[in-house]
């Protein structure tokens, strides 16, 4: 049997001891509780000292505990799979050694939430049609290639490069137009990688809790305005992993 340690989910401000329920990672129903030091604490559960595989069950357990804790606490999410040998290691290497950093980060996220937004073209052929309509040179090369039974490779390569450049420009402009209406409502913003030709932005926003309804309305207005062309995937509040996730190395 592996040694028994403690799995760390998050760091929070904590003035008293608290238990969150038997929801610990690993399917053993271990109690999730706070290990305190002064006015901060680690949200932990008992755990084998192992490397947790990135499975749906494990990542869902980790995420659900973060979401449960954040209903009552501002938190610093800890990276998935962080296991300490024992309570002393958490106290000495994290809560004591990084106390000033923890207090500073907790102050930064206090009374704030993270919201996520992905925007995609509904029909990926639509931006390509617009590019062709807007660019005479792309139309000229396309028409020349269409009229030939044996297409010239040089023209094919050039057309592909021009279309890619034009698509990147259109994506950036559309993203800029969307963000120009949302950024004034947030405290911080992160752009994550986009995937495929359809995605325009994959953004995370840190906002003050009292501005959530205003931000919701702004996203709803944008979705309504662009309903014919764009799909908005809006999620949150979620733990602020894009802004203050803690990495702990032993």
Structure description:
The chain is α+β, with helices and mostly antiparallel strands and 250 residues long. It has 2 domains: 4-110; 113-242, Alpha-Beta Plaits (2-Layer Sandwich), CATH 3.30.70. Helix content is 42%, strand content 26%. The longest helix has 30 residues, at 153-182. The radius of gyration is 24 Å and the shape is elongated. It starts with a strand and ends in a 6-residue tail after the last helix.
List the defining traits of the structure above:
single chain, about 250 residues, alpha+beta, Alpha-Beta Plaits, six-stranded antiparallel β-sheet, four-stranded antiparallel β-sheet, 10 strands, elongated
Radius of gyration, whole Å: 24 Å
**Euclidean distance between termini CA atoms:** 22 Å
The helicity comes to 40-55%
- Give the SSE string: EEEEHEEHHEHHHEEHEH
Characterize the largest beta sheet: strand count, sense, and whether it forms a barrel: 6 strands, antiparallel
The CATH first-level class of the largest domain comes to Alpha Beta
Q: Structural class of the helix and strand makeup? A: alpha+beta
Shape: elongated
Low-pLDDT sequence parts = none
| Overall residue-averaged pLDDT value | 89
Strand portion: 25-35%
In short, what is this structure?
With 250 residues, this protein is of the alpha+beta class. The protein is built from 8 helices and 10 strands.
List the helices and strands and how they pair.
Layout: E1 4-13, E2 19-21, E3 32-37, E4 40-48, H1 56-70, E5 75-77, E6 83-84, H2 87-96, H3 99-109, E7 112-121, H4 125-134, H5 136-146, H6 153-182, E8 188-191, E9 199-208, H7 212-225, E10 230-238, H8 241-244
Antiparallel strand pairs: 1-4, 1-5, 1-6, 2-3, 3-4, 7-9, 7-10, 8-9
Helix pairs in contact: 4-6, 5-6
